[in-house]
DNA sequence: ACCTGAACACCGTTCAAGT
DNA sequence: ACCTGAACACCGTTCAAGT
């Protein structure tokens, strides 16, 4: 009612343009490129999304949905606790590194309620928390969703920064997973 | 002989200015601030240090010395393998986060021979490698210096991004350390 | 109420002119 | 051989004028 039709249309065009530009050039891509591709003036972009993170936040719902799906899939893995946890670590890192720079932004926002993407970071922590709950006593005592999200985020930043391939990534994920599992009593 | 006295003096003034500016404002501080504080023209800065990383590389020797000292201290810790490894993880993270943004730059350079700070990243990997060697069979098989440096760098990025305090950092370091140790046989 | 796009600020980088 | 600093390019952000 109170939003003009052209405002709504520009809002959608900006989101679509940002989706493309961020995918092609990463999350630090120039914002005037977004405005240009959306076919609107620079001021219109800033009216709808005052900061880069506001724009990012609006784009991230689909990302959060995929992250939740990865957590669900990990919890449902028919195997050992180790396999379930590894599934989440792999799935989480894969989603968080979907766009270059996303891992650093999300991890930074994990402890920051003032962040414009605070709700998305919280969803990341909650997805991790669901995995923590599902693993129960198989997980190292005292680990919570925020801690798990930070560790996954840290690993994702390493992958993002160093552009690691699977063979370089796998041993790091193994270290993280084994450190997260409760110590097992062998040979008793 | 072939370097003019004013060139040498400008070189030193730039390093001193960069040390101050990077400490105060982080590694992404404006370079013209460095030139201004050194009292030289912008072109002089670019003549001596064509890229930001060249300037950083020249500043990092002292940093590498401290990193080596942290590795030595860790190896010399009079305690369990776990305590020695924890000492390195804590010391390494502390040094790598000395300046904001350093963790990301160093970790990115770990796999990149073309990086202008490649020698410094290699020193980071070598210091980690010395800890790996010192721990021998107490460490998880297959772990090398580059992997350990990546994990320490990842944790350092989490601390850097999220500005974590000791109470938030400690449990993450514990997870990493336990994942890095060889599985122990308990109760056999 | 919202839009446009020129204008300003900031910073990296180059290069003509100077010594 | 090296230095200076004006000039250019790029990009974020604001705002006067328009509809």
UniProtKB/TrEMBL annotation, chains A, B:
HTH tetR-type domain boundaries: 8-67
Signal peptide: none
PROSITE patterns listed in its UniProt record: HTH_TETR_2 (PS50977)
Keyword set includes Nuclease: no
DNA-binding region, residue range(s): 30-49
Domain of life per record: Bacteria
Keywords: DNA-binding, Transcription, Transcription regulation
Keyword Coiled coil appears in the UniProt entry: no
A Pfam family hit: TetR_N
The protein, known as: Helix-turn-helix domain-containing protein
């Amino acid at each position: 009612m109170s939003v003009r039709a052209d405002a709504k249309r520009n809002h959608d065009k900006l989101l679509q343009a940002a989706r493309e530009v961020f995918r092609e050039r990463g999350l630090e891509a120039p914002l005037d490129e977004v405005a240009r591709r959306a076919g609107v003036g620079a001021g219109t972009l800033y009216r709808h999304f005052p900061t880069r993170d506001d724009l990012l936040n609006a784009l991230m719902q689909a990302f959060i949905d995929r992250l939740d799906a990865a957590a669900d899939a990990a919890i449902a893995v028919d195997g050992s606790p180790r396999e379930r946890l590894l599934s989440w670590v792999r799935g989480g890192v894969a989603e968080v590194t979907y766009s270059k720079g996303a891992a650093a932004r999300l991890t930074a926002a994990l402890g920051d309620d003032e962040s414009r993407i605070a709700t998305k970071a919280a969803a990341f922590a909650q997805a991790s928390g669901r995995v923590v709950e599902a693993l129960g006593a198989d997980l190292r005592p005292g680990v919570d969703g925020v801690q798990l999200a930070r560790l996954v985020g840290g690993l994702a930043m390493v992958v993002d920064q160093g552009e690691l391939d699977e063979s370089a990534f796998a041993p790091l994920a193994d270290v993280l997973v084994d450190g997260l599992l409760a110590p097992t009593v062998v040979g008793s």
